[in-house]
Amino acid sequence: MTWKTPLLVVLLPALAAAEPRTWTLQKGTGRAKFRVEAPLDAIEGSTSGLSGELRFDEATWAEGTGKIHIALSGFTTGLSLRDEDLRDQFFHTDRFPEALLTISRLERPSQGVLAAGREGQADAVGTLSLHGKEQPVRIPVWVMLGDEAGQRTLQVTGSFDVPFTEYGIPRPARLFLKLGTVARVRFEASFRAPAPSSPTVALGASPPAPAAPSTRPPRVELAVNVARRPEKPKPLPRAARWEFSLTSPEGRGERLFRDPAVGGEQNALACVSCHAWRDERTGTLDPLGHASPNSSLWNSARRASFWRGFATTPEDAADLCVRRFMLRPAGGVSTQLAELSAYLKRISPDAAPPLDYRPMLLGRKTGIDRPTGGDPKRGAVLTERFCGRCHGEGAMRPPLEIGLYEADYLVSRVRWIAPHDAKQMPPMPLDRLTDTELRDIVTYLVGRTDDRIFQRKRSSAPRTEAPRRPERGPLAAVGRPN
Asked: Is the pLDDT of residue 125 over 60?
């Protein structure tokens, strides 16, 4: 057993010589992203305000320390008013401009010495300072050491929970049933340090393998758990009444028309979610008083083209729907597409359809003037008519809340104007929902100033009318009201 003594003599000086080095988060690559699950859809944002340092040596990495700064005022979500809410009503950046993550040590390391190309795991123990409060945190982290251009690189990822109450972050009362009490934070960061002056000897470690250079910037993602409303017991479904026999292609297509399984695994829509199948020339409302988001497919199969010329047959048109809205990028099953086409042809008795679908193109490109200048009372009726089919208690999407949305955001979703983030929500074209009707709906959902969930600090109410063009000419000032 005396052979161990020379080996220890070699190892101990190398380990004793290990000195902590500074690992710097690379300038210009610090970037943070977050995602918040909201009642209507996810809110995503990003910031470039990420900086910090770590202090450790590969041979004694469990003794590492560090500080990471996250600038809260730099978060953007794509909508200026929502960014204002985030800064003023949630983070209160005028008083608390940044969050600080301080790491004091690592516990439960998966290996004693970090080796290039080999993933390590540990619990980072320290504190998080946020919103004027400092709380202890324990963060499971994964690290990957690499070599690049004569320097050492380190990729770090991890996740932890941030309870709002522990940091004194207020939640708006109107959102009490919708936002959870804990934020799940996930992060990824890239650091760089000079290579050690002398190689570190690792007992039992495999030879270091060069790690591929990473160009991925640091990222922090914020996901807020959504507390769902208790679901009411759903009534037993009524037996479906089918017009055509299951033994016929059109009968199988009729059933597929109401089946979400035509789409992908995460799909919640069927053809009937967006389209009716009745003759709507005598009225667009169903027996429950709801209107489909898009025009009825009655009498649709005999058109010369579909999807504004992108498809020339009902099968191709259905395939586009499956790919675009029903979350199946590979497209529909050929037999199912043929049976859907057979059904559409059976409910298309006229040789020339009377509907004009050209307004859909215009509806996808334009916003509306004075989006909050409509009639909120009529908007309440129209919201139930055009939105109640999908948004309601026990429906496939959450109920809509007055005061939760911005006017431009609602118009973008309905008309599919970027950044709409509409996911499976179909666009409602002008021949389905006019600008006047949409204006009434937006006015109702945006609500009065005191309906806003986030009360903004403004000296005057937001403008809801279109700006007046400046008058020109020598008589411009004549007759101008005081």
From this structure: yes
